[in-house]
Design goal:
Layout (H helix, E strand, L loop, with lengths): L14 H6 L3 E5 L3 H6 L5 H22 L3 E8 L7 H24 L3 E5 L7 H14 L6 E8 L1 H17 L10 H5 L12 E4 L18 E4 L9 H12 L10
Parallel strand pairs: 1-2, 1-5, 2-4, 3-4, 5-6
Helix pairs in contact: 3-4, 3-8, 4-5
Bound molecules: farnesyl diphosphate.
Length: 251
């Protein structure tokens, strides 16, 4: 971290936040483009500020004791954006991972990549793998970077994995159930999402963690991603702590 870095290292928030901290928070970082447009700036400027929001939010998750935080950085549908924005987002993701991996490592964060390989820039995959290796032994908060990720793609890939087991005689089709499918997800050991936060006021899931969101509490926050950070995360966690979760049962 350089001395000009405005991101404060993780620190513990109020007890109320720590008590409410969910095991798994998922975040749809939305609104970078609109934030920039509202200021007469190119969309890419919004993404650049979004890096600071990402780091501050992860610091907030570490401080609060969140076990896993999944960040939607690039979806399998984001390839539909203009070639120049896609090119920017690829180079930007590669650079963010390269520049921030060491700092995240110092915070005890374990970085994991979740997503599909095809189409993803080789240089992005290289940085993701290097960050995974660097932080593999860390036992703190796990940061799941969802890059070239799609919820339907993940479920389809899991179904293909099961079909292969049937085809090769390692499994009977009749043995397939929710548990066996879940074992074929990209990060099968990670628990379901407890709290999903989407910034920028849009109220959509956008193909994020479709399987893992089954019983998540949803928080659609009315501020753009570049204005989000640890304080906003802690506010969301505190509100989560007051929710009644029944998982299909009764109180
Ligand atoms: C959505 O805003 C945001 C993105 C598509 C990219 C967000 C990614 C980061 C902030 C960090 C990436 C970093 C790593 C480590 C991989 P939008 O463009 O959809 O905004 P809009 O809805 O206002 O157009």
């Amino acid at each position: 971290m350089s001395f000009t870095d405005p991101i404060a290292p993780p620190f513990r928030p109020a007890e109320e936040v720590c008590r409410a901290a969910p095991q798994h928070v998922a975040v749809i970082m939305d609104g970078n483009g609109r934030w920039a447009n509202a200021r007469g700036l190119p969309r890419t400027e919004g993404h650049k500020v979004g890096e600071l929001s990402l780091m501050d939010t992860v610091a907030g998750a570490v401080g609060a004791g969140v076990g896993y935080i999944s960040m939607y950085a690039f979806s399998t549908e984001n390839w539909r954006r203009s070639p120049s924005e896609v090119r920017f987002l690829m180079g930007y993701s590669r650079d963010v991972i390269r520049h921030r991996a060491q700092q995240l490592n110092e915070w005890g964060v374990r970085i994991r990549w979740v997503g599909r390989e095809p189409r993803l820039w080789k240089s992005v995959i290289r940085e993701l793998r290097a960050a995974e290796q660097l932080t593999a032994a860390n036992t703190g908060t796990q940061l799941l970077l969802c890059v070239n990720y799609g919820g339907r793609a993940e479920i389809a890939d899991a179904a293909r994995g099961l079909a292969l087991e049937v085809e090769t005689g390692r499994r009977k089709a009749s043995s397939i159930n929710e548990k066996s499918l879940a074992r074929h997800l990209y990060a099968a050991d990670v628990p379901d999402v407890d709290l999903l936060i989407r910034t920028s006021g849009e109220q959509r899931i956008s193909n994020f963690l479709l399987w893992q969101l089954a019983y998540a509490e949803l928080d659609f926050v009315d501020i753009p991603w570049p204005d989000f950070g640890r304080e906003a995360l802690w506010k969301s966690i505190t509100a989560f702590g007051r929710r009644q979760r029944r998982f299909g049962g009764t109180n």
